[in-house]
Amino acid sequence: MNITLFVPCYIDACYPKVGQSVVEILERLGHTIDCPREITCCGQPSFNSGYWDETREVAVKVLDRLKDAEVVVIISGSCGAMVKNFYPELFKGRPEEAAALALSEKVYEFSDFLVTKLGVTDLGARFPHKVTFHDGCHGRRELGIKAQPRALMAQVKGLELIEMEEAETCCGFGGTFSAKFPSVSSAMGEGKIASALETEAEYIVSNDSSCLMHQQGLIDRQNKPIKTIHLAEVLNHR
Q: In this predicted model, what pLDDT tens digit does every residue of 92-118 receive, in sequence order?
């Protein structure tokens, strides 16, 4: 299968190993990867801030670049929800609406693509650690992703998943929310980390690096005995 990989801007800038892990996993499965350099952002920050006209200027370039893709895999629940769920809303009643709807049908978040589209759960990974999982808001609420990452982790040798009580609770990042309301954002993040620490896990795993970026910042500032890691890095560990 020819897979077009949409790498979110913060992964490209801050977490390149996550993108590299996804490429290596998909290539081992026998697929061809196209990672277009022209796409730098899905437009979500401006969309969430109410600047829809400015967002369309970004999004129309994404539509044009991805119109001929066989399938699009996005390494993020939030960016995946933006393209899959909110592009049709953004372009509703406009000439680009049909293209937005067509793209929506072939967009998958990474873990959902592996499990739902490919039917793959065992990637031969080994990660001998206790982990707990954070369900990012967009992935869980907008894309319905819950079982997929857990099905993948269940096949990782040596991994012990200990569910935290607040697995589905927002960590407080929310993109621009954390910039507009830093005190509230930090308090929410601290609650999430406290719930994770109760499990005595060594790692917080998620399929959204933006959430992990927020949580790792709080962990580092408070010197908490836990680390964060993206699901793709776990699945690529041998």
A: 999 999 999 999 999 999 999 999 999
